[in-house]
Amino acid sequence: MRRMPEPILEVRDLTVHFYTYAGIVKAIERVSFDVYKGETFALVGETGCGKSVTSRALTQLIESPGRIVGGKVIYHSDKGPIDLLKLREEEIREIRGKEIAYIFQDPHASLDPLYQVGYQIAEAMVVHNTVKDLKEGLQRALSILKRVLIPDPESRIKNYPHEMSGGMKQRVVIGTGLTNNPKVLIADEPTTALDVTVQAQILDLMNKLKRDYNTTLILITHNMGVVAEMADRIAVMYAGKIAEIGTAEQIFKNPLHPYTQGLLKAVPNPMKRIERLDAIPGTVPNLITPPSGCRFHPRCPFAKDICKQKVPELKEIEDGHFVACHLY
Amino acid sequence: MIKLAELKKFLIRRILTFLPTLIGVTLIVFIIAYVIPADPARAWAGGEKASQEAIARIKAQYHLDKPWYDQYWFLVSGLAKNTLIDPRTSNPVMDDVGKRFPKTFELALVAFFFVILIGVPLGILSALKRNTWVDTIIRFFALIGVSTPVFWLGYILIFVFFVKFRLINLAGFPAYPSHQITHIPMIDALLTGEFTIFKQHIGRLWLPGFVLGFQGAGVIARFVRNSFLEALSSDYIEFLKAKGVPKLKVYRHALKNALVPIITVLGLQFGGLLAGAPITETVFGIPGMGRYAIQAIQNLDFPAVVAVTFIFALVYVTANLVVDILYAVIDPRVRY
Fold this sequence. Notes:
The structure holds two protein chains of two kinds.
Chain A: E1 7-20, E2 23-36, E3 40-44, H1 51-57, E4 66-77, E5 80-83, H2 89-95, E6 100-103, H3 107-110, H4 117-126, H5 134-147, H6 153-156, H7 166-178, E7 184-188, H8 196-213, E8 216-221, H9 224-230, E9 233-238, E10 241-247, H10 248-253, H11 258-266, H12 305-309, E11 315-318, E12 321-323
Parallel strand pairs in A: 3-8, 3-9, 6-7, 7-8
Antiparallel strand pairs in A: 1-2, 1-4, 4-5, 9-10, 10-12, 11-12
Helix pairs in contact in A: 4-5, 4-7, 5-7, 7-8
Chain B: H1 4-35, H2 40-45, H3 52-61, H4 68-81, H5 93-128, H6 133-147, H7 150-164, H8 185-192, H9 195-232, H10 235-242, H11 247-284, H12 289-298, H13 302-330
Helix pairs in contact in B: 1-13, 5-6, 5-9, 5-11, 5-13, 6-9, 7-9, 7-11, 8-9, 9-11, 11-12, 11-13, 12-13
């Protein structure tokens, strides 16, 4: 696999807390990773591990009671590097949807039910002034519907979301994400809410568009099959921390972190035959009072004393393969 | 959007459903009046001192000696043809009602205006500033609004604006404009350009309208706050933000989505305003239909009571019909 050494995003020590009545939820804690230009970078982990929060925090899309407590997100734009977390509201708004665009999980809920889909695609261009008016936006929306392979786009453009199927809506959402030729596309579980047959179509479409537009793709998913099919590099998250980062091959063939190993044993491994599936014992920890030291130690078969006391740092074990574990 | 042919079919169907509603409402009121152990014929003939012949004549005239269904039919058909004479005023019942209804409707319109003007902005503000002191104050105000009795607020404001400052008057009703178009004087005055008359009507009705609408404003403020907040927490709002849509435009999307439940409640509120009119009209001395209804009840004037009920029910169902049509205008998922 070719390494792309030029980073487009450098995330450093990103920390997000949610201030709830029950206490402070430490949703993600000192998360660091790089995303390289043109690659597909997968953020993997089980529900509630902070993958979505991480992806949203990149452009300050965190709503009250959540708050970005610390960290840096360096974005290498055409005009030079900028820290996205330092931008004011209006400045980050201009980046959102134009340079860094999103696709969300549930296409049934992502579109405003009261507006025609054509208008909603055009709106993404109008608010960034990439078209001169709504009329031109609607014309462009038509060509976008063609690009995302929606049949009969001339009449579909006037459809309301409820008149479309889930797969069709997700195509519209993907089209909306790509309207302004974003440098980075963040897809948060783009196929989870869809039928299995439609999932494959949507993934094919995303792969194709990614090549056509030369976009960097950040893919958030818990589906290892999707990861194997799409990802160049993978970051595994557990309980708000990065456990392991490596190329797809490194993660699937040589998982280092006990959590990654457990995760791969719990689902059919697309790159290695395994005889039976094993569950990881225990449950996801409460993030108001997370376990001391390594957050995985209560469930880890190899836990030692040091795991309870010291938070493990990410260490580079082989070229490009990082792991946060005291075993190494 | 709604297609005209569909709308026409829907309207016909809905208006047909009006009939059972109206028959049901008048029938229930009639039956309550019928089973009340009172002697309306004696009351109409002049009370204790009434002569036997007069009572017998009235009984025959109003079919009071016939079975209940005959009485009901006599009452309803008489109202429909406007041949039923009110035993108290000696006018046709619908003439009396027709004279008073525009005043009450005007009052309800002014009150409705206050409901929207106060309730909606406060609700939006409260949602946007949620969990701050602004929100707390507005929610407290809404609670006060919901729980303040109309007559109490009415007398307090009369004390302030009439007794202390002499800013309002409490008797009579301003003249009507020269041309009757909609038969609602305020609207007619605007249509014919007689602005002094319009001003007189506003001058007479702004305070009673405020009092009548105060409670509704509290309800609406709470309701707008909650449905606006609910809309703001939807996934499509997050996707709009992720698209880079500016704040104000995001709010516009949320507000339009919040509008469907808000309009439902507003429609019910309008009917509720009519129900509150008797107290307000009595407190402020407005010769409207609410006061007329109270006098009718006091005098066992059942034809008038049934007539008033019929009109109120008609306004209620019409308000709901308007709400249903507005649904379809706002929400493309609504089909008929």
